[in-house]
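Late entry, written up from scratch paper. The run itself happened at the end of the previous shift, but nothing got recorded in the book at the time, so transcribing now.
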Amino acid sequence: MRLAFMGTPDFAVAALEALVRAGHTVACVYCQPPKPAGRGQDLRKTPVHLAAERHGLPVRTPRTLKDPDEQAAFAALGLDAAVVAAYGLILPKPVLDAPRLGCLNIHASLLPRWRGAAPIQRAMLAGDARTGITIMQMDPGLDTGPMLLKDTVPIDADTTAQGLHDRLAAMGADLIVTALDRLARGALPAEPQPAEGATYAPKLEKDEGRIDWSRPAADLARQVRALTPWPGCFVELAGGERLKVLAAVSVEGRGAPGTVLDDAFTVACGAGALRLLTVQRAGRGPADGAACLRGLRVGVGGSVVPPPGSTGSP
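Output as recorded:
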């Protein structure tokens, strides 16, 4: 097929690579424009942009697709279909209607559950036992189009957001190649999404990483797995220091929430306790939790809950 590919982050790279390997003609790759990054604030191209350049594919980075000239340029590509994966821009109806077979989206959830921007993390935070990939025919709504293909993966106590992200990216790459093959043969029936079970996955905010010791330890362990590496979880200590929590596990333990129970950096929660396995102090690299505890002012029996009116550094 003659395709456009529309995606931006790492999640979308596997799908682009799969389409190239499958022999499809990728007429153009669309992604978000380069953004300032790092200490020098140099413009940095997105992962999909860099992958497209490695394959010698033309790249466009419009800031919006609402411009009639952009829509005309897209229509002029003469596409059979467009493949969309975490692109980041809304596709207006003229764009959706331009390819002969429409626009197909690789969505990282089992629709209609977790429509929206952060389906991987929201599924983990909610304690879902499984998630997956849905290949969807796009319509003007937010992830509301008919479903074409699905596959599932379990979410267990060892699942991390990064590991799940990588597994779903590979799954999406395989599924989109299958979907396009079946679509070309007219053997891919569309199933409307049911209204029942629809949920929304809003984008992640930095403050969602704040650890609330009054919550059960199992919930907090899941929070750490879901929000690492971004936006990351953190503890605010007395004196204004903010300690990042990179890995943690729920264990047995009892005490006032926020109390350090032992020298392994086990902290009492609303139910059970959370052992901080890997942490990071400001300006330093990741460290073993127990080793870090020895360098903090907080000892066994102390509290990691900041006093009233105290706030951690931004």
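The mean pLDDT is 95.
(Scratch paper discarded after transcription.)
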